[in-house]
Amino acid sequence: MAKIALLIGVSEYGEGIPPLSAALNDVAAMQRVLQNPNLGGFEQVEQLLNPDAVAMRKAIHKLFKEAKKDDLVLLFFSGHGITNDEGHLYLATRITAKDDFEATAVDASYIQGRSNSCYAKRQVVILDACYSGAFAGTWRPKSVGVEDIKQQLGAVGRVVLTSSSATQKSFEQEGSTLSLYTQYLVEGIETGAADKDNNGCILIQELHDYAKAKVQEVKPNMTPAIILDREGFNIIIANAPKSSEAEYRKLVEQYAQNGELSELAYLVLKPKRQTFGLTDEKAEEIENEVLEPSLRRLENLKLYKQAYEKAVKQQYPLDEHNLNILKDYQQDILGLRDEDVKEIEKEITSVREAEHQQQIQQIPPQRAKPNETTTTLTPETDDLSSDKGVDYTRLRDLLKAGEWKEADQETLEVMLKVAGREKQGWLDIDHIKKFPCTDLRTIDQLWVKYSNGRFGFSVQKSIWESVGGNPNADYYTWCEFGKRVGWRKEEKWLVFNDQTFDVKAAEKAPEGHLPVYYYQFIHTGGMPVPGGGVSSLASRLVNCNI
């Protein structure tokens, strides 16, 4: 039985694709831990740096062709992963350019084909890749879901690890030479911290779980994923080092909370330094390494607060252009979720709202012209903007009063008005795709505000995505979403009147429970679409940066 690995790093690309400084360092770090006889114990580890498509295919072909039945085969890739409009995945090479990636990159189906023909029963594929989509005339991130990767690379006996599973960037973390996911894969092996059950062996599932937890401490918006079958759980990727340093690290991991070690924790840790024979300097080094992910996340929150505060001082309310820039900074650069920054935004805008209130009370209302965007400013400074001249006053008043059922019904009514579908009494997918962003944002912000962040389209979108929801999601995903938001109980869907509308009960209802009425009126050809309302609206929210 042999352990063989191919480590591919691509840092240079053709026209239109940005370089990646971490990719080659990732390969070197992975080789260090895999070749170490006390850790990975791989007999054969081959590096392939900045190859063209032919060289990459040849190396992958050789890796899988020469492996024997009892061998462990590992393929590691650090670089750009690109998806076409159909969601098909390609791994970019040195000669891959924006306009010809399908011809010059390595198709995931090629890897799957070589892997399927391999005799080895244990295979590991690790993709520390930043996924991008190619669109006509543009170059933007495109979603790559776990199911997409599973379909294109998964198989019995094969484990696939991926650093991010959606429109997320995995690279170029400031102040580090490694990409985020690889950094913690290496750390989990090298320190033994990934050996959660302390049996001296690190399973591939344990390693991924460790790396994922650390990645999300730093950037909660990143969602590393693992695809495996039952055999995959038994793959041992490395030995865990047994040392006093490793034991002390696990103790620190246990006591650390929110980037800090309390005085109470040090009552145990300081005597343990002597027990484990560690100098104060070495112990503090270990403590700093353990606390580092949380501290980096706190720093990212601080940076967002500074940016948002500056933006609000310069302009209030923020227009769509600046909101989009802040959203990109929040998600793509800092890796923060909406819920991570909600309280920051609320704190900063509370003062500006009071000032803004004094200003708008002196502005007389104006009658809107047909098809002109109207903005109704209220004593509560709610922005009731509409691109279709729809009045959201009643919806606001119902939500403010906690009249959840009436507000839910009113939500459908205003949506039908906006879409011009009052006579039909239902919405179709095309009208959802074209629903004005201004009106969608107004409705959502009212729900989010008056439910204290518990209800609203954007809340439902986050939950939908967390269960793997996408435009092609199957019925089982829809059922899982229904359970999460409380629309489905005991394997049955609840009718509208059975939902939770009582004011006190609604305070304890699952997040995303409301609004619910609208989704029952999304149809194709007159027939309801299971999950169609949530899925279509979630896609529209993404397009509107909500």
Structural commentary:
This protein has 546 residues and is α/β, with parallel strands linked by helices. Helix content is 46%, strand content 13%. It contains 20 helices and 16 strands. It has helices at 23-35, 53-66, 101-104, 108-116, 146-153, 180-190, 204-218, 244-255, 263-275, 280-314, 320-333, 338-360, 393-400, 404-419, 429-433, 437-450, 457-466, 475-485, 503-506, 532-543; strands spanning 3-9, 44-49, 72-83, 89-91, 106-107, 122-135, 138-140, 158-162, 201-203, 225-227, 236-239, 427-428, 488-489, 492-493, 522-524, 527-528. The strands form four sheets. Strands 1, 2, 3, 4, 5, 6, 7, 8 and 10 form a nine-stranded mixed β-sheet that branches. The protein has a three-stranded mixed β-sheet with strand order 12-15-16. It has a two-stranded antiparallel ribbon with strand order 9-11. Helix 13 (393-400) runs antiparallel to helix 14. The longest helix has 35 residues, at 280-314. It starts with a strand and ends with a helix. The model is unreliable at 132-144, 166-172, 363-379 and 524-530 (pLDDT under 50).
Please outline what is shown here.
With 546 residues, the protein is of the alpha/beta class. 46% of the residues lie in helices and 13% in strands. The chain has helices at 23-35, 53-66, 101-104, 108-116, 146-153, 180-190, 204-218, 244-255, 263-275, 280-314, 320-333, 338-360, 393-400, 404-419, 429-433, 437-450, 457-466, 475-485, 503-506, 532-543, and strands spanning 3-9, 44-49, 72-83, 89-91, 106-107, 122-135, 138-140, 158-162, 201-203, 225-227, 236-239, 427-428, 488-489, 492-493, 522-524, 527-528.
